Hints:
Elements: H1 2-11, H2 18-23, H3 27-36, H4 41-53, E1 69-71, H5 86-97, H6 103-106, E2 109-115, E3 124-130, H7 134-140, E4 143-148, H8 154-163, E5 168-173, E6 190-199, E7 204-209, E8 219-224, H9 225-239, E9 246-251, H10 261-274, H11 276-282, H12 285-297, H13 300-332, H14 337-362, H15 367-377, H16 380-396
Antiparallel strand pairs: 1-6, 2-3, 4-9, 5-6, 5-9, 6-7, 7-8
Helix pairs in contact: 1-14, 10-13, 10-16, 12-15, 13-14, 14-15, 14-16
Amino acid sequence: xxxxxEVEMEKAGFKIASYDVFKLKTVRQLATVLTSDNVxxxxxxxxxxxSSTLPVVSEVATExxxxxxxxxxxxxxxxxxxxKNCFYNSAFPVIELYGRSINTFLINDVPVFSYDEDSTEMxxxxxxxxxxxxxxxxxxxxxxxxxxxxxxNIVNDIINSISKKRxxxxxxxxxxxxxxxEMYQKSHWxxxxxxxxxxxxxxxxxxxxxxxRDNLSYxxxxxxxxxxxxxxxxxxxxxxxxxxxxxxxxxxSAMAQKKTDKDNGYLFLSYINTNKDLIQExxxxxxxxxxxxxxxxxxxxxxxxxIQWLLNGINNIVNIKQVEKYLITNLFGSESECCNIFxxxxxNWIFTRGAVAKYMYSGVYRxxxxxxLIQSVSRFYELESKxxxxxxxxxxxx
Length: 398
């Protein structure tokens, strides 16, 4: 969406980079940049802070029972990154509610490149090597979870959980969710909702939900009881497996281990070093990807046939790299050597995605632009090798 906006703005005579569009979350911020030609980070942070606190539950009492209304205090949307699937963006606000760090969960998955020779689409991908099961991590953080594979009375179950001050995450089918007009009665899509309150008189639940499938715009919203019933049962009908569809969270401080982000930094480096051989071996896939991409983008007819899956594959890697950037910045600081190297890696992926997306949305093919793209992509192996060399050395110095 950001790339599409950039293309349309260029057609209208405005110059703005998609990288900046990702930072700008409101029309006011975008208008300021268009008139000043400058991205003011202070302005963005101030407005983000303001918007995240407007309807947030911390402004109400822990149990505000007015017209049979109950809200759990302190739940805030998490819009920093998209991690693996929507379940985590629903669960992270609960983890932060209990004063625990999501970095504990991010370090648990070690990203390594993979390459599928038999794929008819993008062969390069990133897979996660999981260190511990998430149930073990939650328990160590003192976060207890009670689950159901299905609920026979979803409204009553949620009300009972919230009345005990226990947030709930449920799986739904967006096809039945009327507050999502881009999905409602149009597309069946598995999704999760974080529920933190209810109003029995108004027959609504208070939830954390985003506005569009393709962006991070989670915020407090309300949804009717009937919508919850229909969308939850729709999920059971269309996507049900043997996995849990209902999660009730509560905190047990006696079970929580004392852990700081410094401890998480040590663990992160130890997990990276444990998988050192696999990481280094799989970096070679970046060179294969460079050759694959060159064949695609230097032939317009082949590119036209491949453009959609190519963009989807690159976008998936960008999302994973964004998580990695967020994590190492939290653990080691933005001025650290590893972060400086990674910033160049991330910028190159953003540039790669932008070049492919611009062609898809504009239809204007410039071979010179794609030659420049290949030069940029050819540096991935060098930069990733340099980045991991720094991490391996940091691990040795523990």
